Amino acid sequence: MRDGRKGVGSPGYGDTVPPSVPKRTRSRSLETAAVWKPPTRARVLRIRDRLRQVYGIPRMAPHGRPLDELILTVLSQSTNDRNRDVAFLRLRERFGDLDPPTPPPRPIDYEAVLAAPVSAVEEAIRPGGISKVKSARIQAILAAIANSSARTDASPKTDSPSGTVDRLSLEWMREAPLAESRDYLCALPGVGRKTAACVLLFSYGLPDVPVDTHVSRVGTRLGLFRPGAPFEELHDQMLAITPPGEHLEFHVNLLRHGRRTCHARNPACDECALARMCPSRDSFSTLA
Q: Right CATH number for 3-60+207-285 from 1.10.1670.10, 3.40.50.300, 3.10.129.10, 4.10.91.10?
């Protein structure tokens, strides 16, 4: 995921959350899990305020392109932001919609992506890494959406001059119950809670929060999450503690802190603006 969404994509690295702490501190983390208690609202607000002082309040208007967000998140897996963005731009260049003619950048014709040989999709996204796996995954997701009967009551989208129905449209999620949209996305091939949250939050500003490797690590060290918590619990807890209407801010600022200060192996505790309120600081200082 990119800080402040400066590029074409959103912050995030797929749906796998690795361990939140290095191996050498994991035994201590497991001991802490037995006595962990959910943070109070006052503590969450203090953390939010301190992050806000350091990183500000991110401003990112919902972009309204859920399918782009979904494919971007697939491309983000096991690579960096730059390679992901290059892969997405190449996909758009190769499969840009030419009907009706629009000035660049043209939207991606996902029907063309679905109908193309998988080798053509693989070649387009090669800079993003593991393109063989990702190209097959992208086509599997598009096929599942096209063939889905989960939204038989959805109003068909007929934006094109020919009036044809866009069977790949996810526009219905804008007004649907959030839980229904989340369940639909998580039923797609290879899509989990983090990817679904990216689509709902960044596309439509809906109240869901992605928990990626950075958010998981920082949140666990700060005591926001139970150490060793499974993936579903991390997302449920993040939703439970996030102040109303601040889903984007809390996610992005925790992510920024993980990237810039609270590193996985060698966190910069001496430079950390949250050090005084971090229960994990002593664990790392004793290992220096």
A: 1.10.1670.10
